[in-house]
Amino acid sequence: MIETITLISVIAVLVLFTFLFIISRYRKCPSDKIMVIYGKVGSSRDGTALSAKCIHGGAAFIWPIIQAYEYMDLTPMSISVDLENALSRQNIRINVPSRFTVGISTEQGVMQNAAERLLGLKLTEIQELAKDIIFGQLRLVVATMDIEEINTDRDKFLEAVSRNVESELKKIGLRLINVNVTDITDESGYIEALGREAAAKAINDAKKSVAEKNRDGSIGEANASRDERIQVAAANSEAIKGENEAQAEIAQSNAILRERQAEALKRATSAERIQKAKALEEAYAAEQKAELARADREKATQEADILVKTEIEKRRIELEAEARAEETRRLAKGEADAIFMKMEAQARGMQELLTKQAQGFAQLVAAAGGNAVDATRMMLADKMEDLISIQVEAVKNLKIDKVTVWDSMNGKDGTPATANFLSGLLKAIPPMNEMYKMAGLELPEYLGKDIKESAAVKSSSEPETPAEAEKPE
Fold this sequence. Notes:
4-stranded antiparallel sheet, alpha+beta, 3-stranded antiparallel sheet, 67% helix, 473 residues, Tetrahydropterin Synthase, Chain A
């Protein structure tokens, strides 16, 4: 039983340690990072061994010894790129101050590039690498465009920059998030002259437009005043005529309105009463259905509660009975095992004791020359001291100050009673001899022999009388 419990405990500890080890090697990747697993990570579809495995927003189990992992931060990086003396297609050098926002890409193929080329680099090192790529692509885009296109069509310029820069950044695992180009300048002042020209043209166009608008405003004002007076007079006459006709129509309309209102009120009252009656009827029917449904639901609920409670109680009683039976079986088995072990130990001890005693008796008989009687006497002689000690211990605490014997001379034939006591003591020796024989022992010869044996010996030793000698056999 103890060995079984120990084995179960060891297995439980091993399972617990295994579970804790698995949990400690299971890594989750935050949403703002990329987890790069490197080492033995498998192969691609074409059979090529992968150098790393990238996970974004998930989790993975990291095998010990053969795998390790690191995180790459997805935080955007703002890079200031102040391009100076870039040669345009017109061979005019311009300055393009700009700011690029880049970050590590989460696209599958691009993430693999980032794991292979950026893992282990610091943020400043990644910024410097991206800055070099941006400088080169920005110069290339400026060299393919005119200053007028760069200055006026910023969308086209930014689109070309984004396309070229992003294609190159993907090669190292980065993606372009935003491009912001500020004022573009040049050493020759061409862009500034274009600006002044555009400003002057805009001012002149504005002045011309203002003069034309003022002229059109004065003409329009005069025409509007004339038309206003004509139209006001016509409108007044039409207004008076229209007011009279409108009042007549209003009166007729009011009469029709009152008539229709009365009729509508009558229909509405009837309809309202009819609808109220129907509503009450439907409400009563709905309430009746609701009460029936509620009664059914209450009944089902109560039945379900009773059934569930009964089933739970039944299952509890069964489990308790099984537990008590199992406990009783285990206690009985344990007690039986304990009793068996105890009886087995006692039997082994008794067997060992009897074996040793038998060996001792055999050695004692052998020492006595094979005579069991002599061996028994030797044992009695060996224990005689202990027996005498026990007898002495039994009577040593008795305090006898004085022993007085009053002999009344009432013995047989006038003999003293004391002499009769000693004679009776000697007569008790033959019964003692019989008792010793029943036990397989013999009294010593100095205590006397059996009376029959003495008589037999005596008769055999005396001579036969003449009468007995002459008696025929």
